[in-house]
Automatic annotation (TrEMBL):
Signal peptide: none annotated. Pfam families: HEPN (PF05168). SUPFAM superfamilies: Nucleotidyltransferase substrate binding subunit/domain. It comes from the Bacteria. InterPro entries: HEPN_dom. Residues 149-269 form the HEPN domain. Transmembrane segments: none annotated. This is HEPN domain-containing protein.
Length: 300
């Protein structure tokens, strides 16, 4: 499967311009690159109302900031309050330049194939392509996935052991660690990104840029599903710091089954990763694209 430059509709371009405008008005930003966009359409046809169509867009943005201090979580909270459905990865521009120089697969792909939404200096960041470096990077990502999946499996086995012995509070925390490691492994394998995120809701959101299945497994349509997920997601902090933290045996049992299914899914998805197709074809194809080039910023 060959990688293609991101191509968006006029409406998506307008939305991204608005998002970039809000971001640059509140933070010192060098560049904003959209490395993923998901769009879903809902059509309603009933006897009781005129036909209706609505579209929901989700955007994944790489934000390069002037300062080296990580402000990703603050920036994410801020933009989520204005534009729900926007996922942000933020790094200092010098950090990203170093990562590109090391041929970090995620940053190379984002710079070559992503849509440059905003640039403060009018220039794109276009790395030189070296096929051997990309291939080496992919092999390292495969090794990293194997380590993380092994860790995830170990956390699950420990949780099952704790469940058998009645340590239910430990069960939820260990299961959280298992899901975190599995998500990080999938993200590394599919995108090359070295995620340092502990929030599993956010990790599952990032997974959606390459597969909807991880988030779909943790169904959160009904009140009970949402409550059970909160038990799992909240255990990372609450198990350590909340004085009256307590997890019941039934919740522990359900979560064990859920996380076991998630690790099975993780292994299945790992076998579906298309073998690394480097960006060479994409770079060559860009020369043939007349009406679009990801190296050009969207005018603000």
């Amino acid at each position: 499967m060959e990688k293609q430059p991101i191509k968006l509709s006029d409406g998506q371009h307008r939305e991204l311009r608005e998002i970039a405008k809000v971001l640059t008005s509140n933070y010192q930003i060098e560049k904003v690159i959209c490395f993923g966009a998901l769009s879903s359409m809902t059509t309603a046809n009933t006897c009781f109302m005129p036909p209706d169509h609505s579209t929901k867009n989700t955007y994944y943005l790489l934000v390069l900031t002037t300062e080296t201090k990580r402000i990703e979580y603050v920036m994410q909270d801020f933009i989520s309050s204005h534009f729900p459905g926007v996922f942000i990865i933020a790094h200092g521009v010098s950090t990203v330049m170093e990562a590109v120089y090391r041929y970090d697969r995620f940053f190379v792909d984002a710079c070559l194939n992503g849509l440059l939404v905003y640039t403060s200096d009018g220039f794109a960041m276009t790395p030189e392509f070296v096929a051997e470096n990309i291939e080496d990077s992919y092999l390292k990502d495969e090794e990293a996935f194997s380590r993380m999946y092994s860790m995830a499996s170990g956390f699950l086995e420990s949780a099952l052991d704790c469940f058998e012995k009645g340590f239910f509070n430990n069960v939820a925390f260990l299961l959280h660690q298992s899901v975190e490691q599995a998500c990080r492994g999938l993200i590394r394998l599919y995108t090359g990104y070295r995620a340092d995120i502990h929030n599993i809701d956010r990790l599952l959101f990032l997974c959606e840029c390459f597969s909807a299945e991880p988030a779909m497994l943790f169904k959160r349509h009904f009140k009970e599903d949402k409550r059970l997920f909160r038990v799992l997601a909240g255990s990372y902090t609450e198990a350590r710091y909340r004085d009256n933290y307590e997890v019941g045996d039934q919740d522990g049992d359900k979560l064990c089954s859920l996380v076991k299914a998630f690790l099975d899914l993780t292994l299945k998805l790992s076998s579906k990763v298309p073998h690394e197709v480097t960006a060479r074809t994409t770079v060559e194809e860009q020369a043939a694209v007349v009406d679009y080039s990801p190296a050009q910023p969207v005018s603000l």
